[in-house]
Amino acid sequence: MIAGIDPSLSRTGVVVIDADGKVKRDLVLTSDPKDNLIDRICRIGDDANLFLWDCRLVVIEEVPYKAKGRIVDLAELVGALIYIFAKTDRAVILVHPLTAAKAVLGRAPMNKKERHELARKVLKTDLKGDLLDAYILALYGLKHWRKKNDNMRRHNRNTQDL
Fold it and tell me: What is the 3-state secondary structure (H, E, C) of 85-115?
């Protein structure tokens, strides 16, 4: 199983897909803005870790340089997620949202609304917002995983000839 995470302190979208790219489950994690930052990060991290119990690869959206708002807080959440998943022996990929969208959709409109419309059309999904972003990230991870496995198989065939 492969997971995509669109991190946010208010609404973290999480989608888990199988090896065929089919959505197995999705979840939006939230935290109370009245809580302190550490408690919010811990809650999201703990909940994501439990939800992704069977995932071997986790793809997390990196903090875009044009992000607005509480960028440092978001970066701390991303860092905590990386730590949690690496500590539990899961592979972690950080990817820019436009890089993931271009790899999965063939192109990546800068405007998020246009990107979401294209994604729903190309991927034939009803997912929206944070969950749609997480789905794109998971599919990016699947492409990466397949490419890595193909390269390993090719390498094994070449070394058998030696």
Answer: HHHCCCEEEEECHHHHHHHHHCCCCCCHHHH
Quick: pLDDT tens for 139-152.
999 998 888 766 65
Tokens standing for residue 62: 């990196």
Distance between CA atoms of residues 2 and 11, nearest Å: 20
Query: What is the token pair recorded at 154?
Result: 């090719």
Q: What is the pTM of this model?
A: 0.86
All structural domains of the chain with their residue ranges: 2-160
Question: How far is residue 117's CA from residue 113's CA, in Å, rounded to a whole number?
Answer: 6
Measured between alpha carbons, how far is 102 from 140 in angstroms, rounded to an integer?
9
Helix (H) or strand (E) holding 139: helix 129-160
The CATH classification number of 2-160 equals: 3.30.420.10
